[in-house]
Specification:
This protein has 122 residues and is α+β, with helices and mostly antiparallel strands. It has a single domain, classed as Sandwich (Immunoglobulin-like). The strands form two sheets. Strands 3, 4, 6, 7 and 8 form a five-stranded antiparallel beta sheet that branches. It is elongated, with a radius of gyration of 18 Å. Keywords: Signal.
């Protein structure tokens, strides 16, 4: 019984520490025109990464109608690099789209942190 209680407390502490990292927030966005309807999107994200169990694992570029125009997968935690900045090239943003929203995600909460909507430079 004592072992079971210790194990349950340990699992509770792990869950609490993962939840404490919160959601991933977008802090900055830079969009650079690279030709035709192609753009390089550079995004700064902040998240209290807590190792492999809870880290920011993606950000994406979304048109006003909800169409996902580009996704940058983040393959590992950035515990010692906060906030961090990553880019995605070759994002096709159609001529009729004047602004996009950048959303970040973490592998515990999903999406839900601070987003940013920015104008597309033409």
């Amino acid at each position: 019984m004592r072992y079971l209680m210790t194990a349950m407390i340990g699992v509770g502490l792990l869950c609490a520490s993962a939840a404490a990292a919160g959601e991933a927030d977008v802090l900055g966005v830079e969009i650079t025109h690279s030709g035709d309807d192609r753009y390089r999107v550079t995004v700064t994200v902040r998240h209290a990464d807590a190792g492999w169990d809870h880290y920011a694992d993606q950000w994406r570029v979304v048109a006003p109608d909800g169409t996902v125009l580009g996704t940058r997968t983040l393959y590992h935690p950035h515990e010692t690099e906060q906030p961090f900045t990553r880019s995605l090239g070759g994002v096709e943003i159609p001529a009729g789209v004047s602004d996009v929203t950048i959303e970040a995600r973490d592998n515990v909460h999903g999406r839900g942190g601070k987003t940013m909507t920015v104008d597309v430079p033409r």
